Amino acid sequence: MKSDSVSSGWSALLALQRATHSTLQVLATELVGLDLTPSEINALANLADGHARTVSELGAAVGSRPTTLTSVLDRLARRGLITRGTREGDRRVVLIALTETGRTAADAIVEAVTDLEHRALDRLSADEIAGLRAGLQALTEVRS
Predict the structure, then answer these.
(1) Is 90 exceeded by the pLDDT of residue 4?
(2) In this structure, what is the dihedral angle of CA atoms 116, 142, 63, 11, given to the nearest 10 degrees?
(3) Which of 15, 91, 104, 111 has a beta carbon 3.0–4.6 Å from 86's, enabling a disulfide?
(4) What region, left, alpha or beta, does residue 64 occupy, with left being phi > 0 and alpha being psi -120 to 50 degrees?
């Protein structure tokens, strides 16, 4: 199927963009009580496992440059959802971690994301989900 998808008039990138906008709208509606932007939701979801991350690590996880992520982290810190700390032995490294309030918000986000994924993907076979995962991974790894 290599380049057949583009020549047939279907574009994986445009479909991904439509899917992203659609899922962000659903999540925004379901998480309206948290009063978070999609970027803030993404950052908290990527911290939901409870592991502190450097700004660079979190940036890679959310698909954003650390400089772009800084304003998101500033807003989350002001709201008391994250803390910034240092790594033991290297004060230059800034670690981002959830607060208790942030943990509650992250748990709600993970629950909403999991529910949305189930509603969207339950009708797909394991092979179709594996193909979707492979396609998304390939798009994620593209470099200019």
Answers:
(1) no
(2) -40
(3) 91
(4) beta
